[in-house]
Amino acid sequence: MSDARGLLDRISAFRQRLESVPRMAETVPADPTTTPHALSGPETFRQSLRQITGAAEVVEGPLPPQLTVRAHKLLRTAKDLLARQRAFAADPVVAGLSARTDNDADPLAAYHRETVAVMDSAVRLAQIFPESPTAQLKLCDGLDGVLEIVKERLAVQERTLALRRADFDRIDQLAAILVGMSQYRQVNLNPLAGLAEELLEDARQTRPVRFLHAAPLSTHSYPGGPETPAPAQFLAAHSLNAAQVIARVVPFDYEWAGRPLPAVVAALVMDCGMMRVPAEVLAKPGPLSPDERRVVEQHPQYGADLLLRYIPDAAPVAAGVAAHHERADGTGYPVGLKGSTAPSLGRMLAAADVYAAMCCPRPHRDAQDTRSALTDALLMAEHGRLDRDFAEYLVHISFYPIGTVIELTDGRVGVVAANHPNRLDPRAPGRPVVAVLAEADGTLLPRPDHLDLSVSARGGILRTLPADRRRQLLGHRYPDLC
């Protein structure tokens, strides 16, 4: 990040010196020798060159050219783009992501460095403007093209940053609430309703499901961000994932469709009781000891009691929180309820909790792809571990939720753009509309090519593209998908 910031400083300094060069009229004859001397005198040029180079006296070397009106216009455009780039680099989220050195470093940081390098190329192009106005105008065509590339990349950067910031803000906001509740502090729970409404609106607008992840021992959502004690970040990320799932399945349940907000709020706070579990236990890669398991299995009831402490009239929500680890076959906890004896909200939370957990990595296993997670959830329902109806609601999310980056059977790579909500067609969950982004050899397409697999007789989706492959193939063009 320091390299990029230093380069931006040098670009800015040169741009300021270059802008101070005298300008000439845009309309000039093709042959400058037929016009009066374009310069106002040797001393004027020495002063201009001193402004550009910063030197006290110029002994030798070519004098700087005057700039045409178009060149000055392009420099003003470059000034505006540079200001946007500097504001982007100064953002605390970007600074934090750029400081990361682990394997999970965000591709946005690398994309930003490339954009700074392109901007540097634009400034270097301006630095070699010839004296001939005609030659300057020709060079302006190239500079204009480079600045358009910078403008497009800045738009991608800013859009990706907005997504990252929204994710981190949600994690931080929910983590702070969980910490406050666990410490019995006075906590304003009104933001929970606002956060739940945001997630419901995302579902209504069919925006992508963004599976978030934080390690059990993490104390920041991004380096330099607000600090909360572990495992609050881990629990907040998982609860947000489960709440996103609930927001997409609750419209299909006759009991909760008319009041979806309490169901999403329940998903957001269902693991508040887990704050009493030591983060080291949640980070343990091996089997838990009997004492550790006993502590973990107490968290649903503890969370329900904690919720009632803050919202005494939230008994239905608290009952769902207490039962979100019960299983239809009686093997769940903390009570071991069987069948439909668990509250309906608890059974819906259980299905969302299991599916969301499988879609994200845990200390003892890697993340499953969304198709495997959905298949396993349906098998658990078939074997009596989950409620069959609520598990089947997950099919509406599809095997490949919108925004999932996939590899087709012919080797091409794309992102799921839409799904076909047809429960009567068993092929529908696996045959979405795909925006193809790259050919089988890894060549990125100039623009996405949309393919509806539901009407394609041959081919289909081979797999969800692994994270490392996504970064390698798409990171330098689509950092928002990585």
Describe this structure in words.
By secondary structure, the protein is α+β, with helices and mostly antiparallel strands. The chain has 3 domains: 162 residues, no CATH class; 210 residues, Hypothetical protein af1432 (Orthogonal Bundle); 77 residues, no CATH class. Helices cover 51% and strands 6% of the residues. It is built from 17 helices and 5 strands. It has a 5-stranded antiparallel beta sheet, covered by helices on one side. A hairpin with a 5-residue loop joins strand 3 and strand 4. Helix 1 packs parallel to helix 5 and helix 3 runs antiparallel to helix 5. The chain is globular, with a radius of gyration of 29 Å. The chain starts with a helix and ends in an 8-residue tail after the last helix.
Quick tags:
about 475 residues; alpha+beta; Hypothetical protein af1432; 5-stranded antiparallel beta sheet
